Each structure stands twice: as C-alpha cells, then as structure tokens.
Amino acid sequence: METLLHATDKTGTDIDIARRATYVFRQVAEKWLCVVDNSYGTGLLDEGGVRGEEGSA
Predict the structure, then answer these.
(1) CA gap 39, 14 in Å, rounded
(2) How far apart are CA 55 and CA 41, in angstroms?
(3) Is this prediction's pTM over 0.70?
(4) Which of 33-53 are b and which e, b meaning 16 or more Cβ less than 10 Å from the residue's Cβ?
C-alpha cells in the first residue's frame, strides 16, 4: 500500500512524502490478525533507513 503525505516542515516549506507501507496478516481461529504494521514505509529496510527517504529527518 502506498500513502502520500503532504506536510509543512519546521522551516515552513511544503513537502510531499510517499511511503510504501507493509502489513502482514495471519489467520488464527477463523479470525484475521494484523501481525506486522509498518506504516512508516519500506525505506526502513533500505540502506540508510528512513533518513534515505526524501523529506525525512
């Protein structure tokens, strides 16, 4: 899933950020449970982590 964020940074500059979220579900006793909720994006897995994503601190 991709999430598009529009925000204003500390200096007042408008920034746009795209995050590719990861969700993993597991079925347990006929119910689906979310076992991984990485809404910060797959950039956490890239070399350099979140700092490597445009617009991140």
Answers:
(1) 21
(2) 13
(3) no
(4) eeeeeeebbebeeeeeeeeeb
* Residue whose entry in the numeric block shows the structure tokens 């909720």: 37
Instruction: Tell me the chain's radius of gyration from C-alpha atoms.
Output: 15
- How many residues can be counted in the chain? 57
Q: How far apart are CA 18 and CA 7, in angstroms?
A: 11
Q: pLDDT tens, 1-57? A: 778 889 999 999 999 988 888 889 999 999 999 998 887 777 766 655 555 445 444
- Side-chain-facing half-sphere of 15: CA atoms under 13 Å: 15
